[in-house]
Amino acid sequence: MRVGCLPESTREHRGQRYRLHSPAIASLDVASLFDLTDRVAIVTGGSRGLGASIARGFAAAGCKVVVASRKLDACDDVVAQIRGAGGEAIAVGCNVGDAAQVSQLVVRTIEQFDRLDCVVNNAATALRVGVANFDDGLWHKAMDVNVWGPIRLIHDALPYLRQSDSASVINILSVGGQRGSMSLLGYGSAKAALRHATESIAAELAPLGIRVNAIAPGPFATTMMNTSDDAFQSDAADRTLMKRIADPDEIIGAAVFLASAASSFVTGSVVVVDGGLLA
Questions:
Q1: Residues near 59 by Cβ (< 8 Å), separated by ≥ 6?
Q2: How far is CA 258 from the centre of its chain?
Q3: I need a labelling partner for 27 at 20 to 30 A (CA). Which of 118, 148, 193, 226 fits?
């Protein structure tokens, strides 16, 4: 069975014929549904935290990974880990708030791997500021990195995603974009905007066979969390049903699911990985 594709059949409904992907369960190789062999993915913000975990997880599933962030040296470290485990990856320095750098990221990917199947928009800037101290500069920074950057990358990647037989876009949101949070006005507003963009772009690209989904993480042990004071971390853990903060590697399952054939009928959705915080 070709990776990323399921056996195809047709069915007529109300005079219309529809393509169906419905293999017999008994003959289905479940492991292959999560196989990313020979696929190519860009992971922004891939030098640390959730991005680094997703990059390593994709590589472990067979994917060739472009690890991108502003800090090229840190990207190189993640690439070294992937290569040391037998995977294939390259590092590209990129500030997703800069349109020219986003365009060059796609160019570099195609130069290296000659294809692109998946984009993970994980790069973000988390500005801890409330309305009393907000200004135009902070607002534009929050929107440029957290919203416009992902949209630019999808736009620039689109010609190559259209050529893929199983293209996927994954936008990393936050539960902070689904529920109000003190001092996260810019970040939360931007993530809420990215959620709307996810749904809108999913509708636009579905006819092209490109799936667009998102992951909304709760409290994870990333730099943003680890640099917060003990009271903030304790409160974040207590607000989850599981009463803890997640390890970054706990994002991998959701990301591989959305990038792979396992989610072949999933688009326009948000997978919440928050330990029950929003429950």
A1: 65, 82, 85, 87, 88, 89
A2: 9
A3: 118
**Which pTM value belongs to this model?**
0.88
* Contact status, residue 259 vs residue 160, Cβ threshold 8 Å: no
Q: Is 18 a catalytic residue?
A: no
Which of the residues 187, 198, 255, 256 is marked catalytic? 187
SS3 of residue 275 by DSSP: coil
- Rounded to 5°, angle at Cα 143 from 219 and 180: 40
Which of 29-33, 54-58, 164-168 is predicted least confidently? 29-33
Q: What's the rounded Cα separation, in Å, for the pair 104 and 100?
A: 6
What DSSP character marks residue 193? H
Q: State the pLDDT at residue 26.
A: 54
CB 103 within 8 A of CB 156: yes
Q: How many CA atoms lie within 13 A of 75 on its CB side?
A: 21
Q: Which amino acid is at 247?
A: D
